[in-house]
Amino acid sequence: MPLPNIPNPNPGPFERFYRRWLIQLEDLHQLLLQEYRRLGDRTVRGEEDEARLSELISRVSAHYAEYFRAKLAVVREDVLFLFGPPWLTPFERNLLWIGGFKPGFSFRVVANYVTNLTEEQKRRLAQVMARTSVDEATLLAEFSRMQARPTALSLVELVTRTRERMNGESNITDERIQVLKAAAKMLVQCADYVRCRTVVKIMEILNNSQNLKFLLAIVQLQHRLRNWGRHREAHDGADNGGGH
User: Fold this and answer.
1) Could you tell me which residues come within 8 angstroms of residue 130 by beta carbon, excluding any fewer than 6 positions away?
2) How far from 173 is each of 30, 75, 84, 243, CA to CA, in Å?
3) What pLDDT, on a 0 to 100 scale, did the predictor assign at position 189?
4) How far is it, in rounded angstroms, from Cα 76 to Cα 9?
5) Among residues 223, 182, 218, which one has the least CA distance to residue 60?
6) Which helix (H) or strand (E) holds 201?
7) pTM to 2 decimals?
8) Does residue 84 contact residue 159 with C-beta atoms inside 8 Å?
């Protein structure tokens, strides 16, 4: 028999939002790149430079805040989509950590792309990193416990079965589905809080010039991952087509 009373949520609105959001992100990417080339590694900047840089950083931050607000609607409607988002390529989906990027990844961006950190900045960043690491471990432990419960259905399995409406799983009850969704919703919301808090704390520690490099690196990495994912999809599609 079909899965009982599983809703048929529509990810279409968020997919449309995400496509538009990516186009706008590319516009901001060009502005970040333009500002980076304009300022270079200059440590002395005029008030006009600082004001323009602050405004651009605020615009990029607001753009990512808009993404997380829209994502919250998906969490509330059907959080399971975030464990296999159809708006991402398979390559991007393989990199997800509890419905998004791993919070500690932001520190790797700082280490690889942000220069001229003072000793005080390094000390403060280390404090934020230590707290983030503890939160990551707590969230991952809870995620593992949720998956290890004897009555729990694998999130990946449930996402697949919800989409395909497979038959013959009469032992899957509404109660189990709703319990799993509630747990997943709480986990993603907590993970998103840690993600956002970590980035905000990092940006509070960095100066405008360093934040420019930080945000530019994040945007470029995001575009690179998406392009790699599309390339793999095209390559796999060509292989599959050639095999028929």
Assistant:
1) none
2) 50, 21, 22, 40
3) 95
4) 11
5) 218
6) helix 174-205
7) 0.83
8) yes
